[in-house]
Please model this.
Amino acid sequence: MALNVSPTLNVMITAARKAGRSLIRDFGEVEQLQVSVKGPANFVSIADTKAEEIIFRELTKARPGYGFLMEERGFVEGADSTHRWLVDPLDGTTNFLHSNPLFAVSIGLEREGQLVAGVIYNPATDELFTAEKGKGAYMNDRRIRVAARKTLADALLTTGIPHRGRDGHQRFLAEMEVLMREVAGIRRTGSAALDLSYVAAGRFDGYWERNLKPWDMAAGIVIAREAGGLATDLEGTDKMLESGDIIAANIQMHKALLPFVTNKGAKR
Ligand code: 2AM
Ligand code: CA
Model:
């Protein structure tokens, strides 16, 4: 862990690890349930809610006045209107449901409308990604940086594929048609929080996705930025939480990738 972890980041780490312990216990059960006809869907939804309860309890105990925006509970107003937690107790739900270990707890903190801290924890790999504004990004106790690759030809990208019930299937295919000819590879993890963490750690050179929720992105944005990355929406502005669209990469790669995925007259 970073040496100069603030008390608030510590609170976030404790909450994420506690929720992670609960999730990993349930993850073991999920494997057994794969063979049942009904499958583990209901069980997973309970696991998700349980993790959210743990985070809610921990954060409320440590910082009583702060508000919340949580995946399951939605908005919870706090007495202190300057602070808000953005919480996804289980990002990568579909992976978790299928016994795939690409999932994470994600906790972001907004102060006066600005994202100032983020914690993303994958209990299956025991990888903890953390960042505070102005203090750099870390994976466990190691400082992380975005990769230095500058050209699409060298880039390993990650994205989200709109699935059943989501919009944008045609647009996604049109983007792929062009982009897949330009890059070293494109992956899809199924967790926006891990995509952003992996960009921060240099495991991916760039990431873009549409139609996300604020809790999918908040912590990851701080982590990617503090690792030296640029995170914007697909018009190049910082309205990601409002629009639900995001692109993150090092500055040069962001510039190279944005024209292919922008909402404004993309290269297609
Ligand atoms: P989840 O696992 O918490 O549902 C995968 O492309 C990413 O998109 C995941 O972070 C996933 O979060 C998120 N996601 C899945 N369905 C979504 C939806 N209907 N709206 C917004 N985000 C969604
Ligand atoms: Ca999510």
